[in-house]
Amino acid sequence: MIEVLVAMAVMALGILAVAGAQANGLRASHGAHYRAQASFIAQDMIERMRGNPGQARNYAIDFGDAVPTGTTIAHRDRAQWRELVALLPAGAGAVEVDELSDLVRVTVRWDNSRSGGAEDEAFTLTSRIWGN
Q: Helices 73-85 & 2-51, crossing angle to 10 degrees?
């Protein structure tokens, strides 16, 4: 009888360990999903700017800026992009345009604390739009 109880206790501990490992793996997978989404969102803005090269310098937007309104392609692109960023938990995005170096820096931030990461996780993509 004691042998059965010991075997059941060992088995229960093994099942708890497997469940804990499963939960940790799920959290890590969730964090990786957010990072992949952030990279796709950042690349989306770069492609929008490449599709509208004459107005690419007008795509700059800061984290605290309101959602753009207007009828130009750049206004609509920025508004749609902000909607994509908002799909991430506490998502925020910014686009910096450096006309001197012809570089664009797109940063996407989100809250990754539920996945075991930082509260203010960020992904930054830097690209040259004009090809000079």
A: 170
pLDDT tens-digit profile of 70-103?
888 999 999 999 999 999 999 999 999 987 878 9
Domain of residue 68 covers 2-128
Q: Which residues pair with 94 in a beta bridge?
A: 107
* pTM score above 0.90: no
Buried b (16+ CB within 10 A) or exposed e, 58-87: bbbbeeeeeebeeeeebbebbeebbebbee
Total tally of structural domains belonging to the chain: 1
